[in-house]
């Protein structure tokens, strides 16, 4: 399953077919005649953060591109070495402190987790069809969650601060976790994910990510989510659990989609793309929903 980069840039070339193993240790190739560096957007951003000139870094083999691993390798020695950090104390940034506070607050919530494997062949096909029109995989996932949540209001509700009741939201606002260049984490919100069309949602997402990295988001653009998506699939992570953000009922953790041997509809063996999703939810809300609708137990 394709997953778009959170960094800006263009795809300069497709240099390896799906399933190929990229050679990252071959001898350096001659530079391009036009002087242009072919690098992934993430590699360019990382090189910029590390103050690395990719044109002078160890080159990738011919007809390949600069991978993120090249940037740290070419980075100048850090002003503070690992040995110098030993025995010292470094304060958290304001953003890290806020994230830490939320993590600690989440420990007070009685959570439970479930995992489910999802076949993504049809999703991949739809993405390939819509990708030329500017649709992103993040928008597709947010849209899918928004449509599903419309039938399950408890999963985007919230327990009241005093713990005495539940507040049901009048809109479905899907937050998506995004890593910041400084190591922090922010969750831009795709509002009304169940009703906004996929094309507008993709445009909204591109704008949110751009302004998030420039630290230009308004508070209501990253604090109003009532359901969260955390996607580590682009890093090759196959499955993980996500911490429930305080004040919300659920969060979904999405792993990488990979070819998997499965039983087909005709009882034979086949290979399909499968990804594992893990849902973390507030047990106070979901248990109540099952008790009120016991038919769910036998459906």
TrEMBL record:
User: What GO MF terms are annotated?
Assistant: dihydrolipoyllysine-residue acetyltransferase activity
A biological process (GO) of this protein is: pyruvate decarboxylation to acetyl-CoA
Q: Which GO terms describe its cellular component?
A: pyruvate dehydrogenase complex
SUPFAM superfamilies named among the record's database cross-references: CoA-dependent acyltransferases
Mention any Pfam family matching this sequence.
2-oxoacid_dh
Q: Which UniProt keywords apply?
A: Pyruvate, Transferase
Q: What is this protein called?
A: Dihydrolipoamide acetyltransferase component of pyruvate dehydrogenase complex
Q: Which organism is it from?
A: Haematococcus lacustris (Green alga)
């Amino acid at each position: 399953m394709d997953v778009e980069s959170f960094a800006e840039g263009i795809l300069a070339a497709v240099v390896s077919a799906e399933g190929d193993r990229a050679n990252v240790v071959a001898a350096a190739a001659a530079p391009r005649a036009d002087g242009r560096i072919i690098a992934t957007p993430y590699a360019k951003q990382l090189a910029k953060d590390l103050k690395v000139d990719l044109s002078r870094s160890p080159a990738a083999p011919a007809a390949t591109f600069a991978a993120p691993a090249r940037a740290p390798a070419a980075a100048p020695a850090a002003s503070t070495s690992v040995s110098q950090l030993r025995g010292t104390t470094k304060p958290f940034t304001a953003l890290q402190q806020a994230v830490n506070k939320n993590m600690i607050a989440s420990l007070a919530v009685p959570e439970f987790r479930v995992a489910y494997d999802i076949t993504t062949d049809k999703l991949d096909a739809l993405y390939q069809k819509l990708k030329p029109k500017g649709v992103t995989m993040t928008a597709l996932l947010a849209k899918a969650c928004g449509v599903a949540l419309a039938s399950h209001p408890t999963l985007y509700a919230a327990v009241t601060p005093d713990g005495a009741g539940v507040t049901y939201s009048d809109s479905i606002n899907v937050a998506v976790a995004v890593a910041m260049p400084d190591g922090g984490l922010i969750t831009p919100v795709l509002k009304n994910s169940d009703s906004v069309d996929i094309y507008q949602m993709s445009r909204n997402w591109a704008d949110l990510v751009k302004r998030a990295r420039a630290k230009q988001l308004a508070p209501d653009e990253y604090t109003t989510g009532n359901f969260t998506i955390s996607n580590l699939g682009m890093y090759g992570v196959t499955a993980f659990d996500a911490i429930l953000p305080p004040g919300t009922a659920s969060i979904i953790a999405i792993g990488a989609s990979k070819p998997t041997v499965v039983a087909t509809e005709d009882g034979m063996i086949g290979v399909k793309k499968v990804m594992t999703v893990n849902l973390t939810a507030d047990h106070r809300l979901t248990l109540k929903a099952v008790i009120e609708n016991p038919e769910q137990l036998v459906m």
